[in-house]
From TrEMBL:
The keyword Protease does not apply. It holds the Pfam family Calreticulin. It is found in: Endoplasmic reticulum membrane. InterPro entries: Calret/calnex, Calret/calnex_CS, Calreticulin/calnexin_P_dom_sf, ConA-like_dom_sf. This is Calmegin. It comes from the Eukaryota. Transmembrane segments: none annotated. PANTHER family: CALMEGIN, CALRETICULIN AND CALNEXIN. Residues 1-21 form the signal peptide. It is a single-pass type I membrane protein. Belongs to the calreticulin family. Disulfide bonds join 160-194.
Length: 522
């Protein structure tokens, strides 16, 4: 039975919320639209008796990029028409697994579905997968940043496998039917995990201006624990921003996790050292690398006995009483009989096997008694002179430096090979890796707006479902607009508190807590 004050509280709080909402215009129009859409959809579905397992739903519209993009893909039309499955074989792999025959599907998320939203899902376990699509136009690394962003959800967790993408170089031989592990790429970016090694790759291929060789350069590791992103079965957003000034920054869920510079924060470095060791230089034979030497003036003390043994018989030991010096520990078995087939000529003289002497069973011991051995207090071992600083020490030798014949200086590694396709070439021991909302643009704001229209909705739905599950107030929500509006906004604001109205957030959170209490006592 509900206490009367509960209803009063609810009524007052609802009125307060409505009044407050009328007085204050919401600052973020997008949030408003989202939440109102959420309510409208919810109400409509409640009327239609729609799926009650989805406690929060939003009106989903396939996002449309708002600025110049080189590639954008939502998969929401259910087709892979712009994508090409690889028809080739992986090099250097056993024949039975060399084919890129892993299956891809376009389907909805397994958990926290957003109706109308589909993604690309890697379906096969322990198979090679390869799929790629051409960009609308090549991205040429000149004066615009490269922004590449996409979503990953490890729907079944991840044991060992990758979810990274490759931006394929714009070469004459680029043929997506032949996409494989050696297809030239300019950038590789995204999650990868095996065992306890959690990686977020950012690798680019740099062309040596002297000889044209391409070498992989690996950015330093991210500054955060990646495990939570790969194991929580939620959809996470991965963003790489690469700027013409060679700086780069990597984001997960729009929070920076790593940043650096292509000239200073990659391994191996883009530019080789100006000088290198002279391979012809040899260490002089008389080069003295001994920092310490035995003191040449030290003398062995006269009383130092190098021959004293380390162990001696214990001088204090006393033979235990009852010890039988004249009895052997083993005696011939008196009950043993010579076997009938024993041939003394062939087998030698027969002897009974030895058994423990019965006379020794009740006494401390038999045979000749010896005192136990103990450490010798006079033992000193071989005398060695103490070590002193070597006056002739010359330090550790190293060869002289000479000018590096392979030296070059490339101050613009950003200007890498243009990219013309986006490919996923992956192996995984866990299936159901979900990808969605790929975008390549020259403007981070375009990627951010795209994210708020796509990934932001997914996160809102997932967070709202989580709250709904945790406080069991789904039936209540379906009856009460204020509670849903309140809690949806609170959840949505939870991650945006720094950018939104703190007072509004605090108020809503407070009201939500009251609702929680209300249901606790219900
Ligand atoms: Ca989608």
């Amino acid at each position: 039975m509900r206490p009367w004050w509960g209803w009063t509280c609810l009524l007052l709080l609802s009125v307060a919320l409505v009044t407050w909402a009328q007085d204050k215009e919401l600052e973020d129009e997008e949030e408003d639209a989202l939440v109102e859409d959420a309510f409208d959809t919810e109400a409509a579905e409640a009327e239609n008796g729609a799926d009650a397992n989805v406690s929060f739903q939003v009106t989903y519209k396939t996002p449309v990029p708002t600025g110049e993009v080189y590639f954008a893909e939502t998969f929401d039309d259910g087709s892979l028409s712009r994508w090409q499955l690889s028809k080739t074989m992986k090099e250097d792999a056993d024949d039975d697994i060399a084919k890129y025959d892993g299956k891809w599907e376009v389907e909805a998320l397994k958990e926290n579905k957003v109706p109308g939203d589909l993604g690309l899902v890697l379906k096969s376990r322990a198979k090679h997968h390869a799929i790629a699509a051409m960009l609308d136009k090549p991205f040429v690394f000149k004066d615009k940043p490269l922004v590449v962003q996409y979503e990953v959800n490890f729907e079944d967790g991840i044991d060992c496998g990758g979810a990274y993408i490759k931006l394929l170089s714009d070469t004459e031989s680029l043929n997506l039917e032949q996409f494989h592990d050696r297809t030239p790429y300019s950038i590789m970016f995204g999650p990868d995990k095996c065992g306890e090694d959690y990686k977020l790759h950012f690798i680019f291929r740099h062309k040596n201006p002297l000889n044209g060789d391409l070498e992989e350069k690996h950015a330093k590791r991210a500054d955060v624990d990646l495990k939570k992103f790969y194991s929580d079965k939620k959809t996470h957003l991965y963003t790489l921003v690469l700027n013409p000034d060679n700086s780069y920054e990597i984001f997960i869920d729009q929070s920076s996790v790593s940043k650096g510079n292509l000239l200073t924060d990659v391994i191996p470095p883009v530019n080789p050292p100006k000088e290198v060791d002279d391979s012809k230089d040899r260490k002089p034979e008389d080069w003295d690398e001994r920092a310490k030497i035995p003191d040449p003036e030290a003398v062995k003390p006269d009383d130092w006995d190098e021959d004293a043994p380390a162990m001696v018989e214990d001088p204090n030991a006393v033979q235990p009483e009852g010890w039988l010096d004249d009895e052997p520990e083993l005696v011939p078995d008196p009950s043993a009989l010579k076997p009938d087939d024993w041939d003394e000529e062939m087998d030698g003289e027969w002897e009974a096997p030895q058994v423990p002497n019965a006379a020794c069973a009740e006494v401390p011991g038999c045979g000749k008694w010896k005192p136990p051995m103990v450490n010798n207090p006079h033992y000193k071992g071989k005398w060695k002179a103490p070590l002193v600083d070597n006056p002739n020490y010359q330090g550790v030798w190293s060869p002289r430096k000479v000018t590096n014949p392979d030296y070059f200086e490339d101050l613009y590694p950003f200007r890498m090979s243009a990219v013309h396709a986006l490919g996923l070439e992956l192996w995984s021991m866990t299936s159901n890796i979900y990808f969605d909302n790929f975008i390549i643009t020259g403007d981070k704001e375009v990627a951010d707006r795209w994210a708020s229209d796509s990934w932001g909705l997914k996160r809102l739905v997932a967070s709202a479902n989580e709250v709904s599950k945790s406080i069991h107030f789904q039936p209540f929500i379906q009856k009460n607009k204020s509670a849903q509006t309140c809690c949806s906004l609170s959840c949505y604001n939870n991650n945006k508190i720094k950018n939104t109205n703190t007072k509004k957030y605090t108020c809503m959170l407070y009201i939500c807590q009251i609702y929680r209490l209300f249901f606790f006592f219900k």
